[in-house]
Design brief:
By secondary structure, the chain is mostly helical. The chain contains nine helices and no strands.
Length: 229
């Protein structure tokens, strides 16, 4: 049993560190952009991935007793860390799908934040809180899947790899649903690892090094003097 706990801790830490590093990488890509907007997709997804990673690390520390596994701490974790993986993604989805209704965005964000806070602070048990919070998380992931599924099929948004983002979203959905069942068997770290793999794939899809490499090649060719025969 102790070996299982140690493995769970190690895998949670590995998954958490991978997620945080991927998030930091995306935020750094955003910082290097010539024009930066607070709602840019790399920043929103970067913040989401870092929040997911920090949550993994905290959960791993809880599994070995470094952090107390109390109801009060669970409420704080859902209120700050888990919300940090949901609300930025929600903002990104609003800007992608409902740009014409921009003036209502603050109301939508306040509504989701209020619902999240009420569920986190007043839910009677961990199970009830997660049952209340998982639907918005799943809705976010479904919206991301549909969004990048459309851009994949239509060939739009060449700056990202929409196919990889669809795979990443599906893996994240599986991990979130899996937490409900795997947690009862002490195998929550399996869901964390699935999330980490999804985050790696998502980071590759968002950064799209293939597109950037191709763009640099085109620039270099444009500046190469033409040889006359």
């Amino acid at each position: 049993m102790q070996n299982l706990v140690d493995i769970s801790f190690q895998l949670s830490i590995i998954g958490g560190l991978i997620s945080v590093l991927c998030g930091a990488y995306l935020v750094n890509l955003w910082r290097k952009q010539e024009t930066r907007i607070i709602t840019d997709i790399p920043l929103m997804f970067g913040g989401t991935f870092m929040a997911i990673g920090l949550n993994f690390i905290v959960m791993g520390a809880m599994n070995i007793g470094l952090i107390p596994d109390t109801m009060e701490f669970f409420r704080l974790r859902t209120l700050f860390l888990i919300s940090g993986s949901v609300i930025p993604l929600f903002v990104a989805i609003l800007h992608i799908w409902f740009a014409r209704f921009r003036k209502y965005f603050p109301h939508a964000v306040v509504t989701l934040s209020g619902y999240w806070a009420i569920a986190s602070l007043f839910g009677p048990t961990e199970q009830v809180i997660m049952l209340l919070l998982i639907p918005p998380m799943i809705c976010n992931i479904i919206a991301v899947t549909i969004t990048f599924g459309i851009t994949w099929k239509t060939g739009r948004l060449k700056e990202v790899r929409s196919d990889l983002l669809v795979v990443a979203a599906i893996l994240l959905m599986i991990s979130q649903i899996g937490k409900l069942f795997l947690g009862t068997m002490g195998l929550e770290y399996v869901a964390d690892l699935i999330s980490a793999v999804g985050i790696i794939i998502g980071s590759l899809g968002l950064s799209n090094p293939w597109y950037r490499r191709g763009a640099k090649t085109k620039v270099a060719e444009a500046h190469t003097p033409t040889q006359l025969a």
